Fold this sequence. Notes:
Blueprint: H1 24-30, H2 39-57, H3 63-73, E1 81-83, E2 87-89, E3 95-97, E4 101-103, E5 107-110, E6 115-117, E7 122-123, E8 128-130, E9 132-133, H4 138-142, E10 157-158, E11 161-163, E12 168-169, E13 174-175, E14 180-181, E15 186-187, E16 192-193, E17 201-204, E18 209-213, E19 220-223, H5 231-242, H6 246-258, E20 265-271, E21 274-282, E22 295-301, H7 310-324, E23 329-334, E24 346-352, E25 359-366
Parallel strand pairs: 1-4, 2-5, 3-6, 4-7, 5-8, 6-11, 7-12, 8-13, 11-14, 12-15, 13-16, 15-17, 22-23
Antiparallel strand pairs: 9-10, 17-18, 19-20, 20-21, 21-22, 23-25, 24-25
Helix pairs in contact: 2-3, 5-6
Amino acid sequence: MNKQRGTQPGMRDGCAEMGINMTEREKMLAGQLYDCGDSELLNQWHKAKDLIRDYNQTDSADAQEKARILHELLGGQGKNLWITAPFYADYGNNIYFGNNCEVNMNCTFLDDNKIVIGDNALIAPNVQIYTAFHPTNAVDRFGKPREDGSFEFCKTQTAPVVIGDHVWIGGGVIIMPGVTIGDNVVIGAGSVVTRDIPDNVIAYGNPCRVMRENGQKSYEIIRLTDRPWLKGQAALWFHQKWGIPCDAYLESMEACLAGKGAVPQWYMAMEGDRIIGGVGVIENDFHNRKDLSPNVCAVYTEEDRRGRGVAGALLDYVCGDMKEKGIHTLYLLTDHTSFYERYGWEFYCMAQGDGEEKMSRMYLHRG
């Protein structure tokens, strides 16, 4: 994606630090508190509202007139832009589109800061993109009433929104200020996007989270039994992540390779020769509920590969593989909340980990 598509000509970067007076528009685009009632901003705001009214009332088949209005309204656009009316914006001139973009009906872009959208974007109906936010305390938000009783806009700050190339934003999605969405991303309908989304993923939910990779995966999930020569590398990797002696992992992996039962089993996500994630299935994951077995354990994804659905893919693979081996119920001990639920796990009870003072959460998965 061309990250410079949304560059504003004439912005005086760093002028606040240099002691140079900034216009209210410059404050707005710099993310500082600014006066929404500034005459320059209000003039552009009213101009945008008039242009948007004209656009929304233009005959649907009048492509030439619609193109003329968009050229005057928007900050920049590539080739082949299609926006279905009605469409709403604040200023218009802070919105930048790449090539071959389609925006469906009833979308709202509050462009108090830059909204930069890459090539080949598909934006479904009722999508809302926000760049403005306000103090949460009412007194800070509005201040003291003016002595003459006249209207005063609430205090506002902004943060830009950047959407990459080849992105599909589903219907009713809300994108919050400061969010960057990477290339080749699908955001599921009804999601609320509160944080950045990386490239090449499918994400959805409230708040929006990465659920899986989009397209061909950069990694493959394997069973240790399929590549037994990785035993030493895998044991060392799990030891480095969890601090449990390497010999303990080697002993469990040797039992896995002996093939005397469905448990233990070990699985890795491999990117070439590199292990980027892993998980095991053992009889008991060092806790006092010996009756709850077998246990998924040692779930881990390398930090530079998180946010791509690797852990979820591992969990799904493990549950499916164990089901094929005749095991339909799995247990998992963790301190995490709101993660395993996304992959079909249910909270079951609290359990005491060996040598731990605090209780941990026990989850179960039914195949």
